[in-house]
Write a structure and sequence with these properties.
Length: 253
Amino acid sequence: MKRQRRSLRLNCRLAQTAWGELSPTLLQGLEVLIETYGLSVALGDIQQIDGRWYVTHAGLLRTAQHRRCHSIKTSLQKDVSDPVTGRWVFKATVYKTPSSKGFVGYGDADPTNVSVLVRGAEMRMAETRAVDRALRKAYGIGLCSVEELGYLSARAEPSPTRGGAPASSNGNGPAHGQPRLRDRLCLLIRQHQLDQTLVKRYAADFCGTQELREASRDLIESFISTLADQATKDRDGLICKLNSYGRAQAVKS
């Protein structure tokens, strides 16, 4: 018992060192996670993001190992994957015992919902997310895993300059704590099942720039509002408009 309490205090100190002064609520939650699942701050099993705790892939694998997980099987879902656009979907099944029926989890990844640091490795990220979901189901871990947070792609991009001003001069990054414009656009694309390549061409044309990243924040916000309105009120008309950019590109080629 003393050893357990000593380990708990050590993990709490490490958490304070890593993320600064934590609220009593956060510390209490951390203690519960450590005592219930045997997770460790020192080993990178837990991450604190925006005032919430998240489990990591490493932490889930350690939990499975400690609880003598029998096996994990994964399979690519070819019918809903698209190698051309870099979209991959995996199914993972966790067998806690040899006679277990298995706990199933699915994971998807594409260039719009992964960090720039793993861009090009969407297949591996999709498998990792599937395994994370299956393990969380198998061991009753209600925390979302870090790898499943697609919106965190922004966190892996270049940080602000030393003076505090954003590294990007066009203002497309976060402003006053609001969601990134890229994340809002990606959400719209997924929500209405739009072709991201055609949307980018439409956006560049709408903003009057060669590439979307060259446009100002105000222009991009205006485009996102317009796109959302069109997708909601007349999706068929929007699809027809997007397809025109595909035909125009074909003619140029």
